[in-house]
């Protein structure tokens, strides 16, 4: 123990390390932020492991020293996915830990909420914290102040690093130099230029998918057509042992929809189609699709195109109109054309609940019935014949209905239950 460390381990002329600390465990927490750092920066990991020798020098028996290295290749900006950090917090909460060693504060946490949570537990259960600068006791005001400052600087450092990286990436995006992952059907040459995949079978299948969507109108119908004709879809693997290879898989509606949604097939470079949702912070999650007007950057005529940009926009509108008719939603969609000869599919609206009426085939004549719509704890549902009779100008003989066939929610006014008159547009007067 050098002179500076001996001084940092003293308070009021007495050592911060007491017998009660030495009787408990010393934990060495080791972490590196990415697999690349683990593979290429072995020296950092070696320095962190040498903290075990420091614990022995300070008086801990070798059998009382524990090493946590399960968080290697994990970022310190969160704790939900760091099993090692969770184990450390649990051991501190049980009063098993006398001291925690970390090469620097940023190894333990780069998030103030995790850092202060650990400090609070350490203060309650009399646990020391040590880094390469000294030994601290969270119960002491000056030590707590210094630890808090180090945690704040660690989080700010991560923010500055991310800010510089994002600024550099955005600069590349705006000048068209950013190399994003290309979809199946496009290939990047060694000089950086992008061409259509040289495999003509891949080109033909993608052109067929886009042409059939223009004709059939829905991704599901295109997928059914491909399955009926035994046509497989090419899928370039982006990870795993088969990374980079093209596999041919049975068509699915989601795979067809992904092809139709991708602007690269229209020759456009688009950045920011999916952006991080702060409410979902788990790794690999939290990125949600954004509407086109919220994409960060779109540049046309960058890649060789399978369809025109105008056709791409038409396809996106068709997909939006095909959306299942859930309520509420930001913009009403008509819905995909279904079976039957009815002319008002997706157009008839419930006058009370403002919900789209769905098509049912209950008689030789196609009729409409409102989809079940919950209003509070009540379920409002109109039989098909009644709605057709009220909204259609062409009368027909509806099937006989049992007495009291209209089920009204108790909260609706009595004049709307019986005897309510109807105007030409189908709303009650």
Keywords:
3 domains; elongated; disordered C terminus; 429 residues; single chain; alpha+beta; Hect, E3 ligase catalytic domain fold; five-stranded mixed β-sheet; Rossmann fold; two-stranded antiparallel ribbon
What does this structure look like?
Residues 325-330, 362-409 and 416-429 have low confidence and may be disordered. The radius of gyration is 33 Å and the shape is elongated. With 429 residues, the chain is α+β, with helices and mostly antiparallel strands. The protein folds into 3 domains: 3-159, Rossmann fold (3-Layer(aba) Sandwich); 186-321, Alpha-Beta Complex (Hect, E3 ligase catalytic domain fold); 323-429, no CATH class. It has helices spanning 3-8, 19-22, 35-40, 42-49, 51-57, 83-93, 105-108, 112-124, 141-174, 200-216, 219-228, 253-261, 309-321, 384-391, 414-417, and strands at 10-11, 14-15, 25-29, 65-68, 97-101, 128-130, 135-136, 186-188, 194-196, 233-236, 246-249, 269-271, 274-276, 287-289, 297-299, 357-360, 367-370, 373-375, 378-380. Strand 18 (373-375) and strand 19 (378-380) form a beta hairpin.
List the helices and strands and how they pair.
Layout: H1 3-8, E1 10-11, E2 14-15, H2 19-22, E3 25-29, H3 35-40, H4 42-49, H5 51-57, E4 65-68, H6 83-93, E5 97-101, H7 105-108, H8 112-124, E6 128-130, E7 135-136, H9 141-174, E8 186-188, E9 194-196, H10 200-216, H11 219-228, E10 233-236, E11 246-249, H12 253-261, E12 269-271, E13 274-276, E14 287-289, E15 297-299, H13 309-321, E16 357-360, E17 367-370, E18 373-375, E19 378-380, H14 384-391, H15 414-417
Parallel strand pairs: 3-4, 3-5, 5-6
Antiparallel strand pairs: 1-2, 6-7, 8-9, 10-11, 12-15, 13-14, 16-17, 18-19
Helix pairs in contact: 8-9, 10-11, 11-12
